[in-house]
Amino acid sequence: MFRLRRLEFASDSVKRPQYFGHLTNDIVYKRVEAGVLKELKRVTPRNESGRPIARYSQSLTKNIRYPKLKEHLGAVVAFMRISKNWDGFMNLLNEHYP
Length: 98
What we know:
With about 100 residues, the protein is mainly alpha-helical. The chain has one domain (about 20-95). Helices cover about 50% and strands about 0% of the residues. The chain has helices at about 20-30, 35-45, 65-80, 85-95. α1 crosses α3 (about 65-80) and α3 (about 65-80) packs across α4 (about 85-95). The longest helix has 18 residues, at about 65-80. About 10% of the residues are buried.
């Protein structure tokens, strides 16, 4: 995402822009299968302030949705690799995973 959005990547930090979470929800969880993001938000444990304490991927069922996520992520990564910029990537993604 950093390359496609022309952002500098700081390898010495694990912090990422907050909006990357929104992009990930759109690119991955909303497109992998209908209703997945809504269900993940419902079942993922949260702390007292309402923030998730686990990654959404940890709430996927191993036998059904996990393989679909793995397949979808492979396609997303391939689209990112062949795209020269963010708009080109999103065009490919919207065409193949609306």
